[in-house]
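Thread: sanity check for a docking pose with pyridoxal-5'-phosphate

Original post by kr_44:
Hi all, I'm comparing my docking run against an independent structure prediction. Below are the sequence and the ligand SMILES. Could someone generate the full complex and paste the structure tokens? I mainly care about where the ligand ends up relative to the chain.
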Amino acid sequence: MPLDATRFADTARPLVLARGFAAPGIPVARPRLPAAEAILPYLREIDANHWYANHGLLWLRLQSRLAAHWGMGGEEVALTANATLALALALRATGVAPGRKCLMPAWTFVATAGAAREAGLVPHFADVDAGTWALDPEAVEARPDLCEMGAILVVAPFGRPLDLARWDALSARTGVPVIVDAAAAFDALRAGGAMVVGRAPVIVSLHATKSFGIGEGGAVLSRDAAWLERLRRLSNFGFLGSRDAVLAGTNAKMSEYAAAIGLAAMDAWPETRAGWLSITRHYAAALQDAGLKASPGFGEDWVSATLSVLWSSDAAAGAAALAREGIGTLRWWGDGCHANPAYADCPRDPLPVTEAIARRALGLPFWRDMTATQVDYICGVARRAAGG
Ligand SMILES: *Cc1c(COP(=O)(O)O)cnc(C)c1O
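Reply from moderator J.T.:
Ran it for you. Here is the predicted complex with pyridoxal-5'-phosphate included:
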């Protein structure tokens, strides 16, 4: 992490833009993707190849490099335009009949529910476990209504690894397919990492706000070649190897230009990851000193691009207190997915844990080249604001 000589606190005051509208001095996120110079050699290859989309050479190379990163075979990864479409296509490739329910945590990003809707399913929101912020496989298996679920979408919250063997065992015992929204878990899924891909397909986002960002992009990891071929077909108008649409597909392909950014991002990943790890460790220690509790697993052996803490009271009060000191915050998942107007009519369980987390979870500024001074300033302000 860069050490800066400036006293950040002096520059952290909100910039007053007009009529009292203040922009935070420290934004909640500041994504940094590969610079133009790093992408340029790959763009020149595209120029030379005259191949711009539809499974080009760069696309193929990125697929193999990502597969190697995740310890998967080259044919066990499919690239897509983004993770949301990949989730919807994963549900379709699994053959879940439209109109059926899709069990998912209420504590997730709206994309999880949006993908289920896109696949013609009805989201059913379940509560999460307070210790993991994720669905608890035991609680799910004990549900008397499990047979009503066409699929289960489990979410790795903010990139925290899940024990997928437990979900595979549940799926094998109950016959209900499981699909994993691991959008933010690029790093936890690395070869030798804590999250090991088994039978359930796993979807990763390569969005700019994730730890490995290429702008827009997604990837699907699966050990089932026939299933992944179906997903590839669905993402390419239903075509594969011929121009006969054997499935009613859509277009969810990644272009060569996105793959070019992806290859440059892969070149930089060791350094990028080191940056995330360094800021994560510094933050984890500073939060502990400040008496603030981070989301489960933060500071363990994986990185992600968001940091949420459990504020001592309402997150809205914390957000207001930090804004007064020029510190940007974001309630990443708001009041929970179920609370969004689009999903107000969806079936749900009682959600006391989700509601308790949502009320207090507050995203703090977090990006990989922020400075130790900034982190210490933020944690100091937060400790005082929280009355510590
Ligand atoms: C980021 C995210 C998504 C969406 O990924 P996109 O690539 O932007 O479509 C879905 N689910 C979760 C849990 C996410 O964090």
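Residues 82-84, 108-109, 111-112, 155, 181, 183-184, 205, 207, 218 surround pyridoxal-5'-phosphate (CB under 6 Å). Hope that helps with the comparison, let us know if your pose agrees.
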